[in-house]
Each structure stands twice: as structure tokens, then as C-alpha cells.
Amino acid sequence: MKNILIIGANSNLSKLLVKKFSKDFNFFLATTSNFDRNLEFVQWVNIKDSNNNLIEILKKTELIINFGWSQNNDNNKNLLDFILKHKNERSNLIFISSISASPKSVSLYSKNKYKISYLISQNSQINIFLGLVNYNESKQIKYILKLIRILPFFIRFSKNFFNVYVIEKEEFLNKFFYLMNKEEIKKNIVMYDKKLGINEFMDYLEKVNNIKKKFKIIIPVFLAKIVLFLIKYLPFRISIFDKILTFTFKDDEWINKIELNQNESGKI
Asked: In the chain, N or C terminus with fewer CB closer than 10 Å?
């Protein structure tokens, strides 16, 4: 049975993987926070308290999946350096990046994700540029649905001026199962299954969640772009503004370039 170490194991996405495949792989879970005792058939290690145990696990692990993330990018870099220093030479490291991360990133979150992704590439390891995973526990999906339900009307834009890259939960799990069984993995992978314009995305969410309203407000795109421009160049950046920039700004050309290289060896 393949040994897989998941770092950042208290994230909702990592829990999805472990709960689904705990009998298919030998999971080791590393976290800096409290353990989730509801997860069975796994071995836990606390990164803060037990570096020696983590080093021992890194040496015998065949695949490392890093869901871990800190607001302080120095912490992310230090963790990456630690993994690269102590991991088994034959093992692969997969870093879970964001589909919003690119050389032209706008939000602080996306910029920092890209910086770590770049270091991953420089060390011949694997980046997954992950789209928005649609599942019940997703904080992003919950927030968008909450906003939709609060407003007394639907919001649309005069045209689709940005794309949302979505992947359904089952497709996410299927693709990861495929990757966890592979010996050789492409170094940069874009992972999504639907590319939707913002208006199409809102239609999709409202239909799936059976949300109905009588009225629809159409916002001119030029007004939306002015608001985003002001948010982008504010002298300060609060969390909600950074999340808006992460959601709205994607470098489609960069994504297409990765996909093109990815497809040469067979898209997952």
C-alpha cells in the first residue's frame, strides 16, 4: 500500500481525500493545529511539536501532498525548504496552488501562491493549479450562496468579463485518485472541469441550489471594473477585498499555456 503524507491535513479538501481513500492508501497526516479525531485509519503528527517524527515520515513516504498554507509567506517557504531537505529522493511533492496564481496575479493571496509555485517548479516538483471545488464545506461557495440568498434580487453583469474555473467534488476526488496511483506526474497541472463566465456561473449555482427570485439587476461591466480598479489600488488591503480580487482576476492565457503543455502528455 502506497505511503502518502498530507500536510495541512485539517483542511476540508484534504479531509475529503482521506475519508474517501483511507482504505486505498496508507495516509500520514501532518498539521500545525488540533487533530481531527474523526478520521480513521491514519497516523497524525503535529508539525509544531514533533519535527523528528515528521522527518522520519518524510523519509518513508512515496508521495507528499501539501495543502498547508499560511498568511505569512515566509512560513510557507520555510515549510517547503524543510520538506525538500528531508524528503525521500524518489518521492514526489505535490503543492496545491490556486488557478488564480500566475505571474500576473493581482491579489496578495494569488501572488504568494505563485511565488511558492515557482519555487516548486524550480525544484522539479509538482504544482496543481486548482479551480473552485464545488462541495458543501467550501467556504468560498458558502459565502457566494449566502450573498445570493441575502439579496432580494439576482445580480448579473452586462457581459461575462471574467471566468470561473469550477470542479465538482466527485471529479476532484477522481482526478486525485488517478494522480495518487501514478508513478510519474506532469510538473504543472491545471485542475477544473467547467470554465464558466461569471453570469453562467451564477446561473449554475442558483439552479443547482434551487434559488428563485422575481427580479434581476444588470450591472454594467464598466462600473464593475471601476470598483475592482479602486480595490486593486487602495493603499491598504483588507481580507474581503483580497478575496474579491482572487475570485475575479484569472490569467486565462497563463492557464491555457499550462493546459497546452499538460495535454501533450494526456490531460488528467
From this structure: N
